[in-house]
Amino acid sequence: MNAVEKWGVFEVSVSGKTDKNPFVDYDIQGTFAGKNETVTTDGFYDGNGVYKVRFMPSFEGEYTYKITGSFSDREETGSFVVTAPSENNHGPVRVANSTHFVYEDGTPYYSVGTTCYVWTHQSQELQQKTLETLSKGYFNKIRFCIFPKHYDYNLNEPITYPFVGKPMDSSVLTKENFMEYDGACEGNEWDFTHFDPKHFQLFEQRIQDLMDMGIEADLIVMHPYDRWGFSEMSQEDDDRYWKYVIARFAAYRNVWWSLANEYDLLKKKTLADWERYAKIICEKDPYNHPRSIHNCRDFYDHNRPWITHCSLQRQDRHKSTEFTLEYAEKYKKPIVWDEICYEGNISHCWGNISGEELVRRFWEAAIRGGYAGHGETYEHPEDILWWSHGGELHGTSPERLKFLHQIMCETPGVGLAPLSMPVFSRGTVFGWDDEVAIPYDLAYRGSYYLIYFGYFRPAFREYHLDDINEYEVEVIDTWEMTVKKVGVFKGKFRVELPGKEYMAIRIRKLSK
Amino acid sequence: MNAVEKWGVFEVSVSGKTDKNPFVDYDIQGTFAGKNETVTTDGFYDGNGVYKVRFMPSFEGEYTYKITGSFSDREETGSFVVTAPSENNHGPVRVANSTHFVYEDGTPYYSVGTTCYVWTHQSQELQQKTLETLSKGYFNKIRFCIFPKHYDYNLNEPITYPFVGKPMDSSVLTKENFMEYDGACEGNEWDFTHFDPKHFQLFEQRIQDLMDMGIEADLIVMHPYDRWGFSEMSQEDDDRYWKYVIARFAAYRNVWWSLANEYDLLKKKTLADWERYAKIICEKDPYNHPRSIHNCRDFYDHNRPWITHCSLQRQDRHKSTEFTLEYAEKYKKPIVWDEICYEGNISHCWGNISGEELVRRFWEAAIRGGYAGHGETYEHPEDILWWSHGGELHGTSPERLKFLHQIMCETPGVGLAPLSMPVFSRGTVFGWDDEVAIPYDLAYRGSYYLIYFGYFRPAFREYHLDDINEYEVEVIDTWEMTVKKVGVFKGKFRVELPGKEYMAIRIRKLSK
């Protein structure tokens, strides 16, 4: 009997009609039924006469399935068994505690994202290098695009296109003139009613690779950096694209739907378009993967009910993650700062901060109960920049982000909350100047404090939590990645610090 | 014949009645008349039967004077000659170009301030050390208090008191309990109708010392850090104090009136009080010295006509001088950021940023046409912190501030204006990400650009000013204090940068 693990991908392949256009003229659905769930989901045409339906089971045990639709004149049925998830399979990521995340099995998910917009559209050799880098465990989420990207440092052609046809002649492009090529340029010849399955097969292999490494795939389904016209398709073509993408990818447990990168730069799309895409996802994705929409300048209205978390780009030249609390209070959803400037040295203002500054911004997010995203944009002799192409990392931040993740994983319960959040009464122990986080879960209130100083450099700090309990105090150097136990204290106590930037203090109540 | 230089202090001493209380029961005025001005100003009682009247002439040539008042039964008259100002005497500082300053002789004044709140109340030995440090030319303005200060690190007694009487017993004070002593504490015994001239004589000697060094004395006339009750005197006592201070100090050309430090922490003072003090200054100061009032949290309404410039404390934990343009547009007055965190390592959040960060904040102010203030708060074995006590400097910022001042002095005209200011049409040459300043004076428009990158680290920048003129380009390392000529360019050009923080570019049009 066929077997698949819980939250794994169960796929049924069947042959079907090819006399007309299978992408438009035929449909296929699968219904998967176990003791605790019955899920009907769309399949898709994968080329060469083969249709597929994919399913992600949420329960263990025996399942049956039935494949129906106009693609064939006969139904296909079968059965399979769902086994326990393997060790590193915690299920899809869900929102928990209002502004945080857990995997479906209850394990906290502390997001440390990165961005390689079009790494899957580069050479296979470069993609392997990216996978190798990702395997080092710096990140547990990565943002990347289904469509290829046209932008500074991104004038090359992708290895495949999502549609059958041919692209404009890119030999006319230079670093000076590329901005004149925008949207549906002359010379492009695409048949938007014919997807190229190869493009999607290669892409989903990468989703699978990431899943195997425990990395969430934050899929950017639309974006404005375009010379092929993929950002300016008709409503009918857009909707067909969305349904195809969902049918193919939704069964991968690590998929997140990012409706767009910089949605506000897509000149031809209206609010009604975005809301329509969202409706399609909500109808067609049976698994409720995380859904977000990422801004360039103005935020989308993150109060919209279909948005599961706020995927933000900073709006201020100097402050970014410092605004986490304001937005958490406004939207009451997880705050994920997916773009807050990248570590690097390119000319673009969003791509040349230091590793220190990027790591500081991550901590400023974390200490307020938010999450941030990494990117790297160092000048490279072959113009291979992690932010778009993947490859190797050259910066100083990744190791420190891994360290931050480790500290986060040591939080009791799920997620941190800033001490000044209205739900917690702020004691007089911490001055207004300390950025203090405590576990979100009320059960742990008063038992754990994480204090972060950023670029402030106190040589000491004094605390007075209560006169009854004993507290273990550690000094954390977030840059040097050290945790130093400084003692167990009771009543009023003083913690000596090195008077350096990027220090933190962790205080944990000892159980009696 | 007596002689004094233009903008010098001409003083007339006369003996007078002492039978009643000379501070309250007698008055004295002087009228000073030259060809171009006639000034009547109050004098003051200086103890030991001696009354004095001081005058700062604004024109060269012969003057006569007449001293009148109830202090004596006879008038005193005389004459003197006003000579040309000596080389380093440029006159008092005035507002120019809306948001900038010039000395009265037209020399631009680019303010680089520091803060030593109560340096004049420390031992004479320490004061000499402070003067020695100040003589190194890092700063051209210093903020300090007429009253002594009671605060963390400031529990010692001043060398003199402004009034006759005796202070509370300070041996009861500790670092733990001092905050309980606030305002008019038990044990203080002061006669607010009897000034102690010694206190003011010592103080004005320091104003004179600063004047000789070309440093503006930004006098903080009131402040809230008080255990003696000087912050809680009656309206009558306050007004007498203000008049005495003005009569004594107004003739020193380097005096600025800071009505208060953190006026909003003076619990017993009302808006009507501050407005009344301002009225007294405007009536009694014949020379129109700069007038400001400094906040802790809420700004005073800097639109009030008597306020010559905005003396600001940052209101945000992370952004300070980055708000310069917003306030310049709102108040249309010079923006002087007198408190933006100090270089140091003490526990207080406002006193532990790095030299790098403080210098960056100065540049962020400068590039937007504003000015900033320095302070230093490093832990010290004897608790001598520059911010309050003066003494020696231990930080890394002062040299860099001197370098910034030198760069500012090389600005054509008076003052810098951000290129994005509405009055200037913003070209397409500079991206939205560059912080660019040009000379405020329209005459120099298009001929000079100062571009500052702060913590952004581009490895290059491209410019295209026009196709006609030649431009000399320099790369400035604001931290290493180097200016490197990189060439003369025409049309579109690229400037290589080291990809480091704190870099700037200066572009100057070559005359044909």
Automatic annotation (TrEMBL), chains A, B:
Residues 443-508 form the DUF5605 domain. Residues 97-378 form the Apiosidase-like catalytic domain. Residues 4-68 form the DUF5060 domain. It holds the Pfam family DUF5605. It comes from the Bacteria. This is DUF5605 domain-containing protein. It comes from Massiliimalia timonensis. The lineage of its organism: Bacteria, Bacillati, Bacillota, Clostridia, Eubacteriales.
